[in-house]
């Protein structure tokens, strides 16, 4: 868990989710040796999340195009994508039984072709009272994102006939 002052000023927080109003706030960042377009595509590949996102047990797509459900352990969240700027930023809110959360992502291309990835999360409700777990989960999510993308060959180097295991989220 980080102090609200650690937050990135470029994050667009929806009403009611500003870090200063939350029960919990997490900030993490990393550099991924992949272009922002690949990082963005991996984040949108919601169907593959159970394979690499810590704690995500399963995902089910919703009827409106910008919604899905996910099970984080035994907790079910209805997720609504609130912000999407291709290859640059992404944000979604999750509504659980006793928890509301918002997770924002900023992708900043670097001159060396890598991407500086910033992830910030706010939690409202009882889950926000456990700061250490939320901070570790956010950092682990970024570490697995980096490891997953850096371990796979870029699309133009992939073997013919190989494709992503899941279709990207249709936003």
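Q: What amino acid sequence fits the structure above?
A:
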């Amino acid at each position: 868990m980080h102090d609200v002052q650690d937050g990135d000023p470029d994050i667009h927080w929806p009403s009611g989710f500003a870090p200063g109003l939350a029960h919990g706030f997490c900030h993490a960042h990393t550099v991924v040796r992949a272009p922002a377009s690949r990082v963005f595509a991996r984040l949108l590949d919601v169907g593959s999340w159970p394979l690499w996102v810590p704690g995500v047990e399963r995902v089910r797509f919703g009827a409106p195009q910008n919604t899905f459900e996910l099970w984080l352990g035994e907790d079910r969240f209805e997720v609504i994508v609130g912000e999407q700027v291709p290859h640059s930023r992404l944000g979604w809110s999750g509504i659980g039984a006793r928890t509301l959360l918002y997770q924002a992502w900023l992708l900043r291309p670097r001159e060396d072709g890598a991407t500086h990835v910033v992830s910030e999360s706010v939690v409202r409700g009882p889950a926000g009272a456990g700061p250490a777990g939320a901070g570790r989960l956010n950092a682990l999510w970024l570490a697995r994102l980096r490891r997953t993308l850096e371990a796979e060959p870029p699309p133009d180097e992939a073997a013919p006939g190989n494709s992503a295991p899941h279709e990207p989220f249709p936003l």
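Q: And what stands out in the fold?
A: The mean pLDDT is 84.
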